[in-house]
Each structure stands twice: as structure tokens, then as C-alpha cells.
Design brief:
Structural class: alpha/beta
Largest sheet: 6 strands, parallel
Number of strands: 6
CATH topology of the largest domain: Rossmann fold
Shape: globular
Helix content: 40-55%
Number of helices: 11
Order of helices and strands: HEHHHHHEHEHEHEHEH
CATH superfamily of the largest domain: HAD superfamily/HAD-like
Number of domains: 2
């Protein structure tokens, strides 16, 4: 089989990565564009208890948090009883939200080639997401990515972003150190989580948070396309 000229060889890939041996990806806004289903779900939950939903921009700003934390953030200043009412409505409707017909959640352009470039026996890939484990596994199965990742961290099994627990668990499960890990994500929560874990953080400009916000949150760099990742890591080393 002819070698793929766009895929670095083993030694070249490790050289490009420097000390990095674990790349942890966010899911929503980084691997897949899921904003339309997230917005529709939030609007349905709020409407179910007679509340006016937040604007779509406010909803997008909370993508990456656990559902509970996102609801609190979308209702600043509201009484805890109202937060709990919306959270309860979300949990009550969750099965319907997961089973109803949804808009497509495509991989962002360039993600699949990047994952192919990163195949190496000494390199680990992970995901840290506010999604539940079942939701994440459904996404990975839909895109035939289940076997691509070595560690999966979800919001229903760890404290949510920006707490570092998901990143620290990914590092522990792969037997590496924080200095050998980098987080790739589209939100300030991703950047803050990685920094709190002692790891590097790379922001992506194609997701839901602004480039300037990512940089202020501690991003070592912000990339415009998945294909830029290796060259950026090479410069950061």
C-alpha cells in the first residue's frame, strides 16, 4: 500500500509532538457540530415548565458544562428552587431528547484526517466532555470512532469542567503525566480545566467560544483548522 503523503511517519509524528503523548479532545464544538440539537433540547426543557428559554448565543456559551452547571449559568440570579425545577425537567425529558429525531451532528471538516494522522502506538487519544457516557458512545458509534480513543471522560462520571478531574483521570488512565498531555477544545472551560490539571491547552476557532476568550482563559495557541495542530505543537515545544 502506498504511504499517505499527508500522514507523518512514526518518528516524524513523535518529533512533532515533542513531549506530548496524550491528546484529549472536547466533543461538542470540537469534534462535532451539535449546537442545533443542544439549542433545541434547552428550548424544549424550558418550554416544558413555561419558561422563556435563553437566547441561542447564551445557550452556546454554556456548551461543554454539565447539564446541571449549564442550567445554573443560563439562569443567573435565579432562586435555587428554579434551578432545581429546570434540572428536574431536563432529567425527566432526557430519554425523549435522546430518542427523538435530531438534526445531523457532523464531524467538523479536517477532524477525521487529523485522527488518522495521530495513529501511533506511543500516542494516546482521549475525550473529555460534559456529555453523559451514553450520549458520547452514541456519537462515537455514529461516526465509527469508538476504537479511536483510549480514554473517555464524561460529565456524569466526574466533576464537570472547568474542574480538572476529567483531565486528571485521562492522564491517570493512560499512565502519563500532566506535562505529557494537551487539551484540544473550543471553550474557556476546556482551557481552564487543562491549566488546572497542569497540562497544555490548545483552543479551536471553529467552535462556540471566541478566540480572545480562549486566549484569556490560558490557551497556549488557538488553531483555525484541525490540520494546524501538529505544526502548532511543534512550535510550542
Amino acid at each position: 500500500m502506498r504511504a499517505d503523503p499527508t500522514k507523518p511517519g512514526g518518528d516524524e509524528l513523535l518529533q512533532a509532538l515533542g513531549d506530548i503523548r496524550l491528546i484529549v479532545f472536547d466533543c461538542d464544538g470540537t469534534l462535532i457540530d451539535s449546537q442545533y440539537n443542544i439549542i433545541a433540547a434547552v428550548e424544549r426543557v424550558f418550554a416544558s415548565i413555561g419558561l422563556m428559554p435563553p437566547s441561542q448565543e447564551v445557550i452556546r456559551r454554556q456548551v461543554g458544562l454539565s447539564a446541571e452547571a449549564a442550567i445554573v449559568a443560563m439562569l443567573p440570579g435565579a432562586a435555587p428552587d428554579l434551578h432545581q425545577q429546570v434540572i428536574s425537567a431536563f432529567h425527566r425529558l432526557r430519554p425523549q431528547l435522546q430518542q427523538r429525531e435530531k438534526s445531523p451532528e457532523p464531524l467538523y471538516p479536517g477532524i477525521l484526517p487529523l485522527l488518522g494522522q495521530l495513529e501511533h502506538p506511543e500516542l494516546f487519544l482521549g475525550i473529555a466532555t460534559g456529555k453523559s457516557r451514553s450520549s458520547l458512545l452514541a456519537v462515537l458509534a455514529e461516526h465509527d470512532l469508538t476504537q479511536r480513543f483510549h480514554t473517555l471522560q464524561t460529565g456524569d462520571r466526574s466533576r464537570g469542567k472547568p474542574h480538572p478531574e476529567m483531565m486528571l483521570r485521562a492522564i491517570s488512565e493512560t499512565g502519563l503525566t500532566a506535562a505529557e498531555a494537551v487539551m484540544l477544545g473550543d471553550t474557556t472551560f476546556d482551557m481552564e480545566m487543562a491549566r488546572a490539571a497542569g497540562s497544555r491547552a490548545i483552543g479551536v476557532a471553529w467552535g462556540y467560544h471566541d478566540r480572545n476568550d480562549l486566549e484569556r482563559a490560558g490557551a497556549d495557541a488557538v488553531i483555525d483548522h484541525p490540520g494546524d495542530l501538529l505544526s502548532v505543537l511543534r512550535r510550542l515545544d
